[in-house]
Amino acid sequence: MILALFRHFSFFFLSSLVKQPNKGFFRREEEASDMAGYRAEDDYDYLFKVVLIGDSGVGKSNLLSRFTKNEFNLESKSTIGVEFATRTLNVDGKVIKAQIWDTAGQERYRAITSAYYRGAVGALLVYDVTRHATFENVDRWLKELRNHTDPNIVVMLVGNKSDLRHLVAVSTEDGKTYAERESLYFMETSALEATNVENAFAEVLTQIYRIVSKKSVEGGDEGAASSVPAKGERINVKDDASALKRVGCCSG
């Protein structure tokens, strides 16, 4: 009798867990699904993957948190692994979901792999305006980016920490000159003061969208069907990107 009651209770307990996937047993799996950004109920027209690259300590993680959560952490420390956050914007009447990837300290070990770049259609290449060495390394980062992505990926060169005006080691003119030579967009930002952070990300996403919509129009109905992805499908930027690239007008 006691054994039968125990079996009955065990069956009832396990059944109750299975019937309530949003509690206890399955909560972690559901949260992981949320983080991935592919839930069916998400209402967006396009999903664009954008990567943050540049030397360690230039402020990539704070740019990410400022843009996606409007937060800044002075005590920010690099974590191990690759992390990303999402944010949705409205561009020309379309809902764009940005999936922003951060190296999370892996650049210190030259451990960034092709998987990090795979599917990216935009990038923010970040240097610290107070550390000239980080600007000198921009060329290496750009070459690596172009080796792993389409050469016409939309790239914004970002001189971060513009609030530290008394410590500037890289002039705005040097940043603009490099961007012009490499056909990049350019802005100086301050994640601390939230200067141009929104503008930098929004410009990249806007240009990606315009490339995609331009391809759809030029291809007609058939082209639109092949160019416009279903939800969760990433966009590949092809040769038309070069016609839209120009140095941005804004600096901090």
Automatic annotation (TrEMBL):
Gene Ontology CC annotations of this record: endomembrane system
Gene3D superfamilies for this protein: P-loop containing nucleotide triphosphate hydrolases
InterPro entries: P-loop_NTPase, Rab_GTPases_membrane_traffic, Small_GTP-bd, Small_GTPase
PROSITE patterns: RAB (PS51419), RAS (PS51421), RHO (PS51420)
Keywords: GTP-binding, Lipoprotein, Membrane, Nucleotide-binding, Prenylation, Signal
UniProt xrefs under SMART domains: RAB (SM00175), RAN (SM00176), RAS (SM00173), RHO (SM00174)
GO molecular function, one term: GTPase activity
Cellular compartment(s): Endomembrane system
Gene Ontology annotations of biological process type: intracellular protein transport
Secretion signal span: 1-15
Domain of life the protein comes from: Eukaryota
Membrane in keyword set: yes
Main subcellular localisation: membrane
Membrane topology classification: Lipid-anchor
Pfam families given in the database record: Ras
Keyword Signal: yes
Family listed: Belongs to the small GTPase superfamily. Rab family.
Name assigned to this protein: Ras-related protein RIC2
Lineage of origin: Eukaryota, Viridiplantae, Streptophyta, Embryophyta, Tracheophyta
